Amino acid sequence: MTEFELIARHFAGRGAGRKDVLLGIGDDAALLEVPESHALVVTTDTLVSGVHFLPDVSPHALGHKAVAVNLSDLAAMGAEPAWMSLAITLPDSRHDWLDAFAHSVADICEYYGVSLIGGDTTRGPLSITMTAQGLVQKDKAMKRSGAKPGDWLYVTGTPGDARRGLELLQTPRAEITESADVRDALEKRLLYPTPRVAAGQSLKGLASAAIDISDGLLQDLQHMTSASRCDVEVISEQLPLSAALKASVPDHQRLKYQLAGGDDYELLFAVPEESRGSVDTALQHFAVPFTCIGRFKPGRGEVVVTCGGEPLSEQWQGWDPFRDND
Amino acid sequence: MTEFELIARHFAGRGAGRKDVLLGIGDDAALLEVPESHALVVTTDTLVSGVHFLPDVSPHALGHKAVAVNLSDLAAMGAEPAWMSLAITLPDSRHDWLDAFAHSVADICEYYGVSLIGGDTTRGPLSITMTAQGLVQKDKAMKRSGAKPGDWLYVTGTPGDARRGLELLQTPRAEITESADVRDALEKRLLYPTPRVAAGQSLKGLASAAIDISDGLLQDLQHMTSASRCDVEVISEQLPLSAALKASVPDHQRLKYQLAGGDDYELLFAVPEESRGSVDTALQHFAVPFTCIGRFKPGRGEVVVTCGGEPLSEQWQGWDPFRDND
């Protein structure tokens, strides 16, 4: 059995059995059916050992994350996840490792109704490339470019936790002063991000723009304001803060985690005044925390962070030694 | 400019501008339109340095090949190529190298009408993962599993050349006795394979089964007979032989190149008796060489190579030190 067959075997009889898969793994290509009224949504992400994850990460966490980061991109478009291709490069044949990895990939795919439709296994330094495909009603996809002056800026979850989790994972256990609960909560946000799939779909038609946070709130927000051609004010006092990050990081250092942490996989989205009530109602169904953190203004794409109504001059971008900053 | 932006820039204003790309590079995901009467065809292939290509390969050849091997999978399904995602991992930032690579990718994509819809650039040991997507009329895709006893077996091109080309590339120039013409012809088959895109599409409705040859004729034929549940006789005297391979390899060694060489990216296909005339007519339009090399028989999936009507006992499979054999 090849390694890819081993991965595929974990999908047999799992939630991945979609009727729109006309031909799955085992031929030169997969054959898929896209409903007439829908557009196809496609995203690709690569995770490289030592760049996007620590080399000693568990195969279970890695399998989850590789899927989650791709589903997060689909969520930011408001798409329903459908199919996934998986290309994995492995330094050697470790069947236990691959078994745990594939099992984890199957679990998260089953949870989100995603079918594994193909892929490739090759020998080499550990890396994973996934291409995720989703479906969205035509003309309903959320883009980065739709925010307008006057729209409110929202974020799901509590950005910053994942970055602190990474630091704790890189710190010798004996030097960690946080409680086990705090440490676990922060590390889990790094290792097991939750793609905001249901929230993303429920925001279609309500949010005017959306993007997921992978490189840090400010950096991804900058993409949104540039594409939307307006400014935004981020009110630092309104940034959501988890109890774990509050317990782990001193007050004066908190902002850089929240604004530039990265690896959050939360959604940033813009909401016109008239849709705020509908957004409240829609998101309450999903038990996803969400917070209004600012407002869009006329301008040329600038992001301003304020405290007490005054702009902060500190620069947070580029604080990212672990991730590749391309 | 990030490296991926550099790649994407080469596609601006090129043949890649398809009307079915509703949203291309630059958001969280691409948005694509699939015609109602068509199925989506998806394939993923990874090329790793030192496994699938020589580390010193030119970026131009690598760009061509990375696209070609994926289009070859689409061709084997009879699909029209449409969109491609490109994930590239690079050890360092060499703009000249990337420029040549991207230029070559753009050239071949433009030639085949393919649009680059997204991707990712990461830092690490050189490897490329491409996901190619195509379109095919519903129920018209060619599969591996449709061959029936009595069908004739055909192959395009002259398998074996690419493998000899690889050996010549690995041989010091001073030790090569072949003429420059012979050497160039064989090396070119390895470095610049031609995906049989038009031939594949013209075989739809005529061929009963098809597969592309990437791991060697016998190995890929074995996939077809297993999926189709019948035997096949390959008549060794009928195997097509290029003038270059004839000049480069002694008669008694030729068969192993033709049968087990790999990296050919030719099509193997099955044709029912009543469609032979139509296949002749269809393929003559495309100036693609094609040869009938055997016939399917009742059985359980066995591949038999004969010479003078007698089965040959030699084993060719597994002769593949360069490629990953998974």
Question: Could you write a compact summary of the structure shown?
Answer:
By secondary structure, chain A is α+β, with helices and mostly antiparallel strands.
What's the helical proportion of residues of chain A? 25-40%
Q: CATH homologous superfamily of the largest domain in chain A?
A: PurM-like C-terminal domain
Gross morphology of chain A is globular
User: What is the overall number of helices of chain A?
Assistant: 10
Q: What summary fits the major beta sheet of chain A? A: 7 strands, mixed
Unreliable sequence segments of chain A: 321-326
Q: How many domains of chain A, as an integer?
A: 2
The pair of chains with the biggest contact is: A-B, 65 and 65 residues
